[in-house]
Amino acid sequence: MKNEKTDIIKDEIFYKKKKETAPTLCFLKALKLKLSINEAIEIADAAASEYMIQYYEDIFKDINEKTQERFNKFREHYERYPNQSPYCEVLESGSNVLKVRYNRCPLRDVLICEGLGEFAFSFCKSDATFTERLLPGVKLTRECSIVSGDKHCIMRWENIS
């Protein structure tokens, strides 16, 4: 079912994301009620980044920083994601590059429907934060972003070390 007002598709993917993120949605609603919007976004940025860092620290736990092995582990992990997500595709994958496209952002859609759209970019920023912190020597380029109004998100990681 498509919501014509916001052009958001409320399907199984949407409701699954809404259920998965229920605690996050409650947290963001509380931030929005209790703090100024700038303070709330600052905390959301930090929380989203911390989540991504912890997620990838577990994946990289036995692999040294600034190594080809670490980039390979990241790339191989990410390459499996399209099998779980019909809206993500790997455009390019090589020993020093990974380029992916998201054709949809269910989290953004849920946030907008819950009146929390201003927090969507916090989750986009977390990609840059974890890349900088856990993949030193890897450059992330975000060519376009659904949150910014583009039709797709295209991200490219390049191992330049």
In a few lines, what is going on in this structure?
With 161 residues, the protein is α+β, with helices and mostly antiparallel strands. Helices cover 52% and strands 19% of the residues. Helix 3 (37-59) crosses helix 7 (120-134).
Description:
The chain has 161 residues and is an alpha+beta fold. It has helices at residues 12-20, 22-34, 37-59, 68-79, 81-84, 106-113, 120-134; strands at residues 2-3, 8-9, 88-94, 97-102, 138-144, 153-159. The strands form 2 sheets. A 4-stranded antiparallel sheet has the order 3-4-6-5, with helices on one face. A two-stranded antiparallel sheet has the order 1-2. Helix 2 runs antiparallel to helix 3 (37-59) and helix 3 crosses helix 7. The longest helix is centred in the N-terminal third of the chain and has 23 residues, at 37-59. The radius of gyration is 16 Å and the shape is globular. Residues 1-5 have low confidence and may be disordered.
List the helices and strands and how they pair.
Blueprint: E1 2-3, E2 8-9, H1 12-20, H2 22-34, H3 37-59, H4 68-79, H5 81-84, E3 88-94, E4 97-102, H6 106-113, H7 120-134, E5 138-144, E6 153-159
Antiparallel strand pairs: 1-2, 3-4, 4-6, 5-6
Radius of gyration, CA atoms, in whole angstroms:
16 Å
* Secondary structure: number of strands: 6
Low-confidence stretches: 1-5
Question: How much beta, percentage-wise?
Answer: 15-25%
Q: Specify the overall morphology.
A: globular
Instruction: Specify the structural class.
Output: alpha+beta
How many alpha or pi helices? 7
Main sheet specs: 4 strands, antiparallel
Query: Roughly how much helix do the residues carry, as a percent range?
Result: 40-55%
Order of helices and strands: EEHHHHHEEHHEE
Q: N- to C-terminal separation?
A: 46 Å
Strand arrangement, major sheet: 3-4-6-5
Average of the residue pLDDT scores? 93
